[in-house]
Amino acid sequence: MSRAVNHLIYIRNAISEIRQWTLQGETEFKKNIVLIKATLYNLQTLAESTSLLPQAWKDEHPEVDWNGIK
Questions:
Q1: Lower CB density within 10 Å: C or N end of the chain?
Q2: CA 64 vs CA 12, 19, 30: distances in Å
Q3: Neighbours of 29 (CB within 10 A)
Q4: Residue 57 domain flag
């Protein structure tokens, strides 16, 4: 499996985890410091993973705000 595919799988999984952790709503989410820190970690590593994707692949997907993810 290529590195780009590994990064895409990681990105997908990070987004899925963040969605799951925030389902209970903002008020409940803000009460749980562990979830807050885990979410921040996933966002940081997700952004790093997007920077490692090949530019040609990003160019093929202009619908994604790649600069906004950084």
A1: N
A2: 13, 18, 28
A3: 14
A4: yes
The proportion of the chain whose per-residue pLDDT surpasses 70, expressed as a percent, equals: 99
User: What is the tens place of the pLDDT at every residue in 3-14?
Assistant: 989 999 999 999
Tell me 60's DSSP state: T
Residue 25: left (phi > 0), alpha (psi -120 to 50), or beta?
left
Q: Is the pTM of this model over 0.90?
A: no
Residues across the chain: 70
Q: What is the pLDDT of residue 1?
A: 65
Number of independent structural domains in the chain? 1
Residue 43 reports pLDDT greater than 70: yes
- Within a domain: residue 70? no
Residue 21 within any structural domain of the chain: yes
